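Lab notebook: predicted structure, single chain.

Context: the supervisor wants predicted structures on file for every construct in the current expression panel, including those that have not yet been purified. This is the next one on the list. No modifications to the sequence; it matches the entry in the shared construct table.
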Amino acid sequence: MEFSHVSVLLRETIDSLAIRPDGIYIDGTAGGAGHSCEIAKRLTTGRLIAIDKDPDAIRAATERLAAYPQATVVQDDFRNLRIIAQAQGIERADGILLDLGVSSQQLDDAARGFSYHSDAPLDMRMSQSGMSAYDLVNSYPEADIARILQDYGEERFARRIARAIVHQREIAPIKTTLALADIIKQAIPAATRREGGHPAKRSFQAIRIEVNGELTALESALDQAFDLLSIGGRLSIITFHSLEDRMVKRRFAAYTEGCTCPADFPVCVCGKTPRGRLLAKKPITASPEELAQNNRSHSAKLRCIEKIKD
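Prediction complete. Output recorded below exactly as produced.
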């Protein structure tokens, strides 16, 4: 299956990076190379490092960026941003982009096991290696499954679903996406199932986040990315659910925090000064035109910060 991915907030993201022809840029989530190609075509003597951990994405990005000698494609996880930059001889970057979450191709390719709409082996691994959703569902203790569904899916019936999963796997292993989706559906009260949206959506999100270590990767990458920026460099991040967005919002707030001394202190003794400047107080969301063309842009939020001090 060809790797296809519609880049959300494409124009807004490229504008937020304020790309210079001689600048150095890092796309930590290259995917189908939509954002990467737009960055690369604006470079002359500059450089682009396009990173992804999905082998399918790497193949697509390598092919699509072949026309741009200023672009280098690297298969790795953006949680290793500092190591990747050092390996590429980069000390500072003028812009870094993270487009979080699952790609259109990963969702649309039923064999990848991300979707609750199509039957496929339970997988959900972005890197196509390591622990899979099958391993999690069939081996994690009930309490851990409930915690994951609650913390990463904000699922209010987490305990009921975890109990149902463990009960079913004692009869036979849970092997497919539709089998898991049906277990989740049956564990949720009928009245709640009629409220709208697929009943397995939150649980599948939670399991995917755990399998891929998405929040721990983001937690690790944020400081690395900001520290890598040159003065005046920009970090742009697209999130797709509240857990990611809250993490980015809070970290950006910490970067822009100034003096924290009590108001009645005559002089500052804490020594804190802002290291960054938000380009917009509220996140940028998709335009009505994009919303009409791409349903997956509905939940996308773009936040961008400019570094003003090391």
